[in-house]
Amino acid sequence: MDGTALQEHAGGEPAEPARAEAADGAGTASRRRWCAHRPATGWVPTRVVRRVTRHAHDAGMATAEYAIATLAAVGFAGLLVVILKGNEVKGLLGGIIKQALSL
């Protein structure tokens, strides 16, 4: 299809034309600008695609930050396990529990 044809929506209804071509010969550029991306549901203007994908380069940052935070949490948990297995901490925790139960 050349970009001026009507696209059909999922419901079977014909969509609006992508954009009418200008009579002064600028129709090709106009059509190219408006019809650069054609998803299954119809034409999407290039400016909309640019607006939506403007910050797409940051999409993987959140995953990397979550991975680093998870590794830090696992490391901190391991450190706490090592500390809590010590005899001094066991004695302190045992004393706190005995004092709380004696009230």
Q: Any overview of this molecule?
A:
The protein is mainly alpha-helical and 103 residues long. It folds into two domains: 1-54, no CATH class; 59-102. Helix content is 54%, strand content 0%. The chain is built from four helices and no strands. The protein has helices at 27-34, 46-53, 61-84, 87-102. The longest helix has 24 residues, at 61-84.
Summed up:
The chain crosses the membrane at residues 66-84. This protein is mainly alpha-helical.
Topology of this protein?
Elements (H helix, E strand, L loop, with lengths): L26 H8 L11 H8 L7 H24 L2 H16 L1
Tell the overall outline.
rod-shaped
Helix content: 40-55%
The domain tally reads: 2
Computed over alpha carbons, the radius of gyration is: 31 Å
Count of extended strands: 0
| N to C succession of SSEs | HHHH
Largest sheet, described in full? none
Strand share of the residues?
under 5%
How many DSSP H or I helices?
A: 4
Uncertain residue segments = 1-24
- How far the N terminus sits from the C terminus, by CA atoms, comes to 83 Å
User: Which structural class best describes the helix and strand composition?
Assistant: mainly alpha
The overall pLDDT average reads: 70
